[in-house]
Every structure is written in C-alpha cells, then in structure tokens.
Design a protein that fits this description.
Layout: E1 7-14, E2 18-25, E3 28-29, E4 34-37, H1 44-62, E5 67-75, E6 79-80, E7 85-86, H2 100-108, E8 112-116, H3 117-128, E9 136-142, E10 146-152, E11 155-158, H4 187-191, H5 193-205, H6 214-219, H7 225-232, H8 236-260, E12 264-268, H9 275-289, H10 294-297, E13 299-302, H11 309-319, E14 327-329
Parallel strand pairs: 1-5, 5-8, 9-12, 11-14, 12-13
Antiparallel strand pairs: 1-2, 2-3, 2-4, 6-7, 9-10, 10-11
Helix pairs in contact: 1-2, 3-11, 5-8, 7-8, 8-9
Length: 339
C-alpha cells in the first residue's frame, strides 16, 4: 500500500461518555478533535446521524486539499467486524444487533470500517504511540467502562466469530457489583465510572473525611475526574478510592499476564491521565497477585496519545489496511469457529 501525506481518513471514536471525530493522516492528527456528548442521544440512529453530519463538515473542508479515503469507526462493546454489526453496548441502551457499518456507508458514500473502540486504540498506539515497534502487546482502556485489545504484528487478534477479547469481563470475584452486561464480579463492575462514584458517595455518607461537595459534584454529573483531582490534593475519601481502584486494577493486570503473557500492557482511556497516582499501588498488587516469572517480564505504562488513540486507530483502518487485513483471528490459524 502506498502511503501519502495527502491521503487522510476520518477517525470516529464513539464512547459511553464522549464521541470524538477528527481527520487523520499517516503522520497523525490533521484537524482538531471535535467532541459530541454521547448522552445527548437517546437512541442509535440519531447518534449516527449526528456523527455523519459532524464528520461531513470535516470532509467538505479537507476534500479540497486532501484525498479523503474513507471513515474508520471505533465502538464500545462486542461486535462482528466481518458483518460490521454491533451486538450491543454494556453502557448504552438500544444498540443490540445494529448494522453500524451498513448504516454509516449508506450515509457517507465513502468506505466505512468499524472496530471495537479499544481495538482501535490499540492500533492507534501501534502506529502513532508508545507501542511503535512492539510486535505483541495488550492495551487496557479505563473510562466509563473497561475495554481491552491484543495486538500482534500490527493486527488485532480476535477469537471466533470476529469478537475481540474482553478483559473487562474477566470475573475477579464470585460476587460483587453488577456489571453493565448483567453479570456480577467482573473487572469492569469494580473499575467502571459508575462504581467509582458509588463507592466514594458511600464513603462520604459513612463519615470518611473529604472536601468533596456532593451537591456540586452531583450538579456536574458526578465526573470521575473529580475523584482523581481531589486525590491529588490528598483528600482522604478520594485517596481511599484511588488505592482501592489500584488494587482491582492490579488484580486484573495479573489475570491478563497469566493468560496472555504479553511483554507490554498500555493503559489508555480517561483514567490513564492518573497513572502516576495509581502506579505504585497497582504494581504492588500486580506483583503479589501474579505468578513468577510473568510479573518480571510484563511492562505496564500509560498511553502517550492523550485520549486520541481511538480516533487515530479508527482512521488507521482506512490508511494502513486493505479490506479486513487488520484482523488476526482463529481462522488465520486454520481453527474452525464451529468446533
């Protein structure tokens, strides 16, 4: 494939909280990143319409000076890339069995490729971030929910039926909070934004000292960033939650190490900005929970892409890959998905 600075793609990262849209080349971001709020839409088709309209503003502008090659889209939740269909989103309602690829292709009239949002972030890290040159790594995205991706030689590894691994749904407790998928005790059920907020509120109501004003926090929509901001100021309740969060994260990373033994894990998503605060306790719990020698070999570090990995990776589907060559599945190894 011939790569050109004039060739660009629209990258779209649809998340449970925000939708990010930008124009990308092989060198990185060409445009600013426009942000829509996911909560502004109460059903899938109005969201897809808004994404189309916002993206077309970019396409009309940049098609004058660049070759717009297509649109790449990252979506949270399990999906089938071969059918370009999403099975549902744990943290957004109404997305069951939506043919997103078809819907957007009909709107745009450009080639459209879709991928799980964390898979897209993994490809973004591979082509533009800290993972350049790393042939095998895992990316763990921490935000509204928890996502994961396994990247092998610049391709996203999928199992049967074109579905990517979901580390957020590894059970780490027999019981526990209910996950967005309906099960209990999953890693995501302990690390998702909703549970972080719930635990802090419960601590404050139980009398744990804090400077957080619950009325103001509620009026702001309970952003998780508030917890980490107050922890940086040594707030007792916030620090208590950060240490608790780090403990769950360390156990989840130990499970990833035991199962996949990757040499690198990159932390992405909104919580990645707080890695310096989380690192010490996370690595301590990881070390005590992980078998030797995995704990010695696996390096854990934050993404360098400051929240843009999903947009960059989504666009890379168009810029770097022919058809569905970005997928490495069990079918490539001759494994029958019907077995």
């Amino acid at each position: 494939m011939v790569l050109s600075d004039k060739k660009v793609a629209v990258g779209i990262d649809i998340g449970g909280t925000a939708i990010k849209i930008a124009v990308v080349s092989t060198q990185g971001l060409v445009s600013k990143v426009n942000i829509l709020h996911s909560g502004s839409f109460n059903e899938p088709y109005s969201l897809l319409d808004a994404v189309y309209q916002e993206s077309m503003i970019f396409i009309r502008k940049y098609s004058r000076t660049h070759d717009v090659a297509g649109v790449g889209v990252g979506l949270p939740g399990p999906l089938n890339v071969f059918e370009e269909r999403i099975y549902g989103m744990p943290n957004m309602e109404g997305w069951e069995n939506i043919a997103v690829g078809f819907e957007l292709s009909q709107r745009f009239g450009y080639p459209v490729k879709i991928l799980n949002d964390t898979d897209a972030a993994g490809l973004g890290e591979y082509h533009y971030g800290n993972a350049k040159g790393n042939r095998y790594f895992v990316i763990l995205s921490l935000g509204t929910g928890i996502g994961s991706a396994v990247i092998v030689n610049g391709r996203v590894w999928h199992g049967a039926y074109g579905i990517s691994p979901e580390a957020g749904h590894i059970p780490i407790s027999i019981d526990g909070p209910e996950c967005g998928c309906g099960a209990k005790g999953h890693l995501e059920s302990f690390l998702c934004a909703k549970q972080v907020v719930t635990r802090v509120i419960n601590d404050i109501k139980a009398g744990i000292p804090t400077s957080i004003d619950l009325e103001i926090w509620e009026s702001e929509g309970f952003p998780v960033k508030t917890v980490f901001d107050y922890a940086a100021r040594q707030d007792t309740a916030a620090l208590r939650e950060v240490n608790r969060y780090a403990g769950y994260l360390g156990r989840g990373l130990a499970a990833i190490a035991a199962l996949l033994n990757p040499p690198y894990v990159y932390i992405s998503g909104s919580v990645a900005n707080a890695w310096d605060m989380l690192a010490s306790e996370t690595l301590r719990i990881f070390g005590t929970s992980c078998i030797f020698p995995h704990r010695s070999f696996m390096k854990i570090s934050p993404s360098a892409l400051e929240g843009c990995g999903g947009v960059l990776g989504a666009a890379s589907l168009i810029l770097y890959y022919e058809k569905d060559s970005y997928i490495l599945s069990n079918l490539d190894a001759g494994v029958d998905s019907e077995c």
